[in-house]
Predict the 3D structure of the following.
Amino acid sequence: MTSQRTRDRLVQRLRDAGITNEQVLAVMATTPRHLFIDEALAHHAYEDTPLPIGHGQTISQPYTVARMTELLLADQQRLGRVLEVGTGCGYQSAVLSPFVDQLYSVERIEPLYQRARNRLYDLRYRNVNCSLSDGGWGLPDKGPFDGILVAAAPEVVPETLKQQLADGGRMVIPVGGRKKQRLLMISRDGDEFVTRDLEDALFVPFLAGVQR
Ligand code: SAH
C-alpha cells in the first residue's frame, strides 16, 4: 500500500491532472507521504485526496502540493529563501525542501508545529526551519523571501507578506471564503506587484493568533 508502484500510480494521476515539472514529479514519487499522517490512514496516503491530521486541519491533496511547488518554482531549478505559512503535518515542507536553500515554515497550532518539527527532523529535512507563529506577520527577520507559499486561505492577501517578498520573488496564495477561493500568484517587480488569478482552490481558513 506504500509501495513504489502505488506511488508511481499517484505520479501518473498528477501528470494527467496537468503537473508538468519533471523534478517536482520525481520528488512526489519519493516523498513518503504515509509517514506524515496517522498510521490508521496510511493506506490512503497515495490517493490524491486531502486527509485529516487533527485539530480540524488536513494534509493537502498531493495535486495541490505539486501544483503550488511547480508554480513557486516557475522556470527556476532552485530558490534561495522561502517562507511557508501553514506547516500542518510538514508534507508540503518536505516536498519543497530539495528545491530551496532554506525553508522557513510557520504554523499557528502548537501540537501540529511540535509534531511536524520532530518529524521533519527525524526524516532529516535539515534545511526546514519550523516556528510556532501567526503567519500573518511573516518572518520579518528572516526575509526578504524569494518565494512565499501560503497553505491556508485569507479573505485578502496580507500586505505584510507582500512586503516580505524579495524583488523578483513570487507568492502563491489561495484567497477567499470557506466556499469560494481562487489560487493567486503575486510577483514582485521593484515596488510593483503583479497578480495572476490561476484556478479554483479549497483550503482551510487562514486564522489569526497562536493556539496552544
Ligand atoms: N501543507 C500542509 C497542510 C496545511 S493545512 C501539509 O502538507 O500538511 C493549513 C495549515 O495552516 C493548518 O495547519 C493551519 O493551522 C495553518 N494556518 C492557518 N492559518 C495560519 C496562520 N495565520 N499562520 C500559520 N499557520 C496557519
User: Anything to note?
Assistant: The longest strand covers residues 165-176. The pocket of S-adenosyl-L-homocysteine is lined by residues 57-60, 85-86, 88-89, 91-92, 106-109, 112, 134-136, 151-152, 204, 206-207 (CB under 6 Å). Strands lie at 51-54, 57-59, 79-85, 100-107, 128-132, 145-150, 165-176, 181-189, 192-201.
